[in-house]
Amino acid sequence: MGLEIIAGVDGSAESLAAADWAAREAGRRGLPLRLVHAWLWQPLDLPLVQEEGDQQRLAEHVAEEAATAVAAAHPDVALSAEVVPDTPVPGLLGLQERAAMVVIGSRGHGPVAGFLLGSYGQQIIAGAERPVVAVRPGRGGEGAGDDDSGEVVVGQLGGADDSASALRFAFETAAARGAVLRAVRAWSLPPLYAYSPGSMRLADEAGGLVPFEEKALHEVLAPWRERYPDVRVAEHVEIGSAGEVLLSASASASLLVVGRRAKRGAVGPRIGSVAHAALHHANCPVAVVPHD
Question: What letters, b where the CB count within 10 A reaches 16 and e where it falls short, cover 99-128?
Fold first, then answer.
């Protein structure tokens, strides 16, 4: 079986915005879209939905309502919808083997607060082995980033292997959209104790720290430019924290792509500080791509 795009729906405006975004992306990539509502029966203190059959019918209605809305807006997209008998996190993660990406909704809370990503969303992103895109409703309840003509912005950090997965996803997306790809590399001055003749030799040979960082970004992007020759690429090197630089560069973007290392904390997987900043403060949909 081929790849598909999976979107989680729960009847909220946020999830409907995510489903609409996923449908547009599925149309561009020529992939089928699978709408999934995760539901697990449990007794509720609501007399009208106490029985398992009543809850089942409500769950089916959520999936059907989302499918009807998406089909009406995107009739050319191959679409399916289903109810998965599980809680949201394992329900979506259990289907990711065939997923090109998993798309989820996130509540918007104004231009300053940005995303309010619930615990389910954080757990899905932290545990996913595929790219996860978080989408919030825009003004008027429409999906954020309805105008997908803006740049695709991707953060590049470290060497070629460190950012390969995020760059691959960003180039694929920019190619499918015919959009400009802005590759952003943030850097900061090394601490005083890090200065030494050996550590600074490469920077000196490049003509200074800024040319060194620009050269590093250019070399990392070179093979991806060759693989996607039709994608227009803007190289962006700026001093500052990675989160701040990325948020500034993506102010008018249609998608922000960040990588995620597999980190585990005392309470389970973590998404990392840069991804956390992007998810909570970006004005556009955010794709979090786990490293290979």
Answer: bbbbbbbbebeeeeebbebeebbbbbbbbb
Q: Which two tokens stand for residue 233?
A: 């690429």
- What is this structure's pTM? 0.86
Closest CA to 103 of 288, 291, 292, 290: 288
Per-10-residue mean pLDDT of the chain, 292 residues long, equals: 90 92 97 93 58 74 95 97 91 94 76 51 92 78 59 93 95 96 88 52 59 92 98 96 94 95 58 88 94 80
Measured in degrees and rounded to the nearest 5, phi and psi for residue 240 equal 145, 175
Q: Using alpha carbons, list the distances in angstroms from residue 159 to 70, 131, 167, 215, 274.
A: 40, 20, 12, 11, 17
Residue 7, strand partner residues = 35, 103
| Domains annotated on the chain, with CATH | 1-146 (3.40.50.620), 147-292 (3.40.50.620)
